[in-house]
Amino acid sequence: MNTTLPKLLAISSPGGHWIQLTRLCQGLEGRYHIVYAMPGDLFGTASTLKGKKVYSVTDVSADDKWKLIPCALQVLYVLLKERPQAILSTGAAPGFVAVWLGSLLGIRTIWVDSIANVKQISRAGRLAQKRADVFLTQWEHLSNGQDILFKGAVL
Amino acid sequence: MIFVAVGTQFPFDRLIRSVDEWVGQHQMAGIAQIAGGEYLPQHLRWERFMTTDTFNQHLQAASLIISHAGMGNIITALENRKPIIVMNRQHALGEHRNDHQLDGLAWMGKLSGVYTATSQDELYALLERQHDLQAATQTPGARRQTLVDFIDQAIRFPKQGGKPA
Predict the structure, then answer these.
(1) What is the pLDDT of residues B101-120, one digit of tens each?
(2) Measured distance CA(A6)–CA(B93) in Å, rounded
(3) Burial of B157 from C-beta contacts in 10 A (0-12 / 13-18 / 19+)
């Protein structure tokens, strides 16, 4: 563990969000001390992440919004314990929770909307947009050049 | 060998049944990851969920990947240089909360190594010519690097890009 590097919390839902997030983080490892968080007990930690700190948080879907409460408490715990300099998320609900709590704590927040959202910004993204310091889409046509930026994509 | 995977969020029985019946007719071997599906494959070996490492082992052992139109499986297949056929879930059939997988299908099909089907007929047409399907010619590169570098700059130098810190 290199404590001289700035600390980054990378957080997302499992599945496609997480795959995109970890691919972005592959390029940031070495430049940051990255701590991860995802709803992930179910599928084990990939061997590529062995040795990394991966917090497990409660997942939230549109069908069980009440889980925002345990999710928020867990994310708050991670933020207070780790005190990251910045938060990076690709979505969905856990990322939105982290962006809101992070902005309240004065942590720099960066949202990268999933590349799966081709026609419009995701629902969680629209909610996170109010709070994120930097809001990125992976589609040039969804960018407005001001508060929704296009600066590349995972594919 | 074929590896068919539907993600972890929802079942996708229509896809699993289609592939299962096809491999049964063509005496092919395959493995399926079926999530909470009710249809249990008769010909494919199957598991509901897999650890990430087991999933990657099956994917690497397969010659062809078939998947719901989800980004995780597409990215993983491209990185492992495996051709992948994706079929979109349909909101009208209760297979997802919306039709964003259909929205994505057009650009997914433009990716090297990705083939798209909107129906069983289109899926079977692709399976008939599966030996012509090519893996991605290169792994994701320049677009990802510019995004990573921008994120790095945006963290380090708050004044550039986005709201001031």
Answers:
(1) 999 999 999 999 999 999 99
(2) 47
(3) exposed
Instruction: Phi first, then psi: give them for residue B13, nearest 5 degrees.
Output: -60, -35
| Sequence-ordered alpha helix ranges (H) in chain B | 13-26, 52-61, 71-79, 100-108, 120-128, 142-156
Q: What total number of domains does chain B contain? A: 1
| Alpha carbons A128 and A50: distance in angstroms, whole number | 30
The count of domains in chain A is: 1
A16–B140 CB contact, under 8 Å: no
Instruction: Please check whether residue A10 is in contact with residue A37, taking contact to mean a CB–CB distance below 8 angstroms.
Output: yes
Name chain B contacts of A112, Cβ cutoff 8 Å: 147, 151
Give domain status of residue B67, yes or no: yes
Phi, psi (deg, nearest 5) at residue B85: -100, 130
B162 domain-assigned? no
**In whole numbers, what is the pLDDT of chain B averaged over residues?**
93
Cα distance between residue A32 and residue B116, in whole Å: 37
CA atoms of A8 and B112, how far apart (whole Å):
33
**pLDDT exceeds 90 at position A2:** no
What is residue B39's three-state secondary structure? coil
Here the ipTM equals: 0.94
Q: Select from B46, B42, B20 the least CA-distant residue to B31.
A: B46
Tell me the CATH number at B33.
3.40.50.2000
Chain B contact set for A8 (CB, 8 A):
155
What's the mean pLDDT in A65-87?
A: 96
B125 touches chain A (CB under 8 A): no
